[in-house]
């Protein structure tokens, strides 16, 4: 080889210049087609790129595929060389190794005596692997292991003979493969939760094929039995044999599910051929199915019994191709889109489909005949096998529901459809408004007896009470709940595996049945179930269905009808009416004890209850523990409605004042109570109730020192905008003096004309009306502009925002608008209030009250209701709160804004503008960026808080709380402590300042109530009496103390507090503030010379921690009980 040229021997390389034609080369035809397809098919080029990346991530890489193929070839050699084994008595388990058991236990069997086990007749790879539609990370490869002829006989289709032999062959395979160096572990599993079809699961040895599972399916050759003998209408189980009673009349009932289980084992290879023919010359087939599988997996619809499996989805694509709904020129995205559109509009529960094209077979049954035996019908290419044999109506309706949502996401330009469809998981607990668990499945044996005509079905399912009763249970619940729910679903649990050395489980041992309810908010809380008129056949049927709950009632129209009335005095009780319906019907018709039902729907209601007690939150059926406990404690909805009613009356009083100098153009509330977002809405107060905790100063009460703090009475703030007038002055001080005069005049007129107790100050008027204190402030829009006026050095007048103008604009313009908008959301969605109040209570419980503005929480929850994808709008506070935690913990706050489209005012161009501005100015924007129609670029509500480190802490807490709460909801323990996530961990903090509980005015709002019981407006009749005294308003010494601490020591530490009755303040030292600094007179507060510094040099100063802690006690003298110093936690 020639030596490389040296620097001296070769001239330097020159940069080549491209011609203009090369720089601006026209796109190729392929590139033009790609661009055209992107415009016509995809939402955007980004969507197309994301789709391609996703497909590349989930499909099996070529190198890994080669390793798996090599391993499968080795496994095939092992299987095809298994030694034969002759057994004298198959019912004797001694022919297996001691710790290998048969995967199914049979009470009786016709398979007895001698039997010879031989190597498989053939081993073939079936399923997704050969078609390259297997999805990562967990790979399941299916091998069809054909049982040898020696194990088969012509009459094996009768009385479970084939199933028994199949199970014995599984034991033979497990016995031979156990301990082989190619196999790391051998287990058993039921196919689709069907105990009649066990299979052998192999975990292969070696790190290179990690997460690969091989499923061995014992099967039959396609022509082993005559298919006409396995029609759904045929009977292949003899009742006398099954019952063991020869005196039972032999009626030959049809056995459709039993027959299908045999047909499925005869059709595995033909199904593979069907899919292979569909995939031939069809590049989009693979990509489309991969996308569809990811979509199903994210919704937990593809695994376990009754599932809409990836196999069924693949066969559906083949069906749509045969019907020319799809063609082989379509891309994977087009396949996905067309399949979703088809699923949204079809109904296999009433109008099934078939892949069979052969109409010459006279024995072939019609689709209508299949509907007589199966809930969902999709026939394979033979026309004899229903691919959806195990699927329930509930599963199919859930798939349709998700398909309808997917249609919306695909066509929504402002929505991140890719994230909603493929990236965001939709777990069961976050999907459904209420869920309940049926714990003890052994009760279904009693249910099988109570339901009519289930004896034949039970025999057809091989004695599986769960699969037999489940469709009837769903039917019963649908009839009883009616319009209260829009959907009932069953949680699909993945097929359970067990060791080959363990006794096989029974169907009722495989865990609870979990049901999910999507509530219809219009009817879910209805307390009355009106039935037919009395003395009619329909009335008798109504009585039989509802049992003792049915009663005769006379209605306002004069009719006398049967009816059922459920308890529901409060909104919290009404939300649980579905629980009463379910427990009553399951006990009456299915013999299922209510004690074995775990209903998850109102577990967080005590968090919002102002009981102030440590006793359990009463249920509608429970009796009060004592005379002071409200038997029906609500969660604040009734109190909020009462406040709004009084506020509306006050608005009428204000507008109706005679002689007021200017017209009030608007009266708008700005308090959280008036937008339904106050965690604990105020209740009416009576001045005399304060006793010795307050003294009278004129007609206004003031606190008394050395006495317990008066009860918390918040001021409900109202803004009155006055009309413009040429007489308004042009300078801010003069306007403020005019406003003070208006406040005095307003107080006087309200007192004289409306007989209300008022108290005027220069900034506002406090008004006592029906036990509520309203703080009315007069506003004039011109004041904001005057505050913004400033002059440049050249003397030019300009308008610039400043602290005063921004605060006034926020209080008098932005807050009223926000309050009005959120009030409207509550009118549309009744669960909004409960959700946002739970969210606020949780944030405060994490001691972040003073770090996260409550308006940001209001907006985040509003976002969940306005843009709920990938769900529908939350129908209960519990699931809404769960989604709030998920939004906090999963949203990429660094890279994406949260755009809240209030009143649907934002257009597509606004979304682009917000995202572009966010991308270009990210470093200058707050860590949590919230955009609204009136605040698209500045994120006013989160401009100052939360800080970056607080947001990180909030996200960590949300992630852990989401995990804990989800686990509790899906668990079965009726004694689960749902308040756990509302108790903050204190081991993180450096100092804990403990407060005297009696000086905490909101102590009745604590999570674990130890404070005084709070009186309820609904039970205290004296509260309606007129009062001539104004109570102590907005007095919270803890908040005042906290503000002083932050003002004095905010540069040294971060302070944390729960404003809802917290009895301690915690702090974390700021490590950077404890670095040595040169002595400066103006910065010498709370500092001391650093030990060891030389007197000849400038002294270095560090914070004096002991003095600072002593200052905490001095500032809080009387309020502070003790200060706990945790020096072992300090990092300073």
Provide an overview of this structure.
By secondary structure, this protein is α+β, with helices and mostly antiparallel strands. Among the domains are: 133 residues, Alpha-Beta Plaits; 139 residues, 2-Layer Sandwich (Alpha-Beta Plaits), CATH 3.30.70. It contains 33 helices and 35 strands. The strands form eleven sheets. Strands 3-4-7-6-5-12 form a six-stranded mixed beta sheet, with helices on both faces. A five-stranded mixed beta sheet has the order 18-21-24-23-22, sandwiched between helices. Strands 11-13-10-17 form a four-stranded antiparallel beta sheet. The N terminus is likely disordered.
Radius of gyration: 36 Å
* C-alpha geometry: elongated
Into which percentage range does the β-strand content fall? 15-25%
Largest sheet: 6 strands, mixed
Strand order of the largest sheet: 3-4-7-6-5-12
CATH architecture of the domain at 991-1129: 2-Layer Sandwich
Continuous helix count: 33
Residue ranges: pLDDT <50 for 5 or more in a row?
Answer: 1-10, 612-631, 1010-1025
Question: How many extended strands?
Answer: 35
Q: Which secondary-structure class do the elements indicate?
A: alpha+beta
Family: Belongs to the NRAP family.
Organism: Patiria miniata (Bat star)
Region (Disordered): 610-638, 1004-1025
GO cellular component, one term: UTP-C complex
Key traits:
Alpha-Beta Plaits; 1132 residues; five-stranded mixed β-sheet; six-stranded mixed β-sheet; 33 helices; alpha+beta; single chain
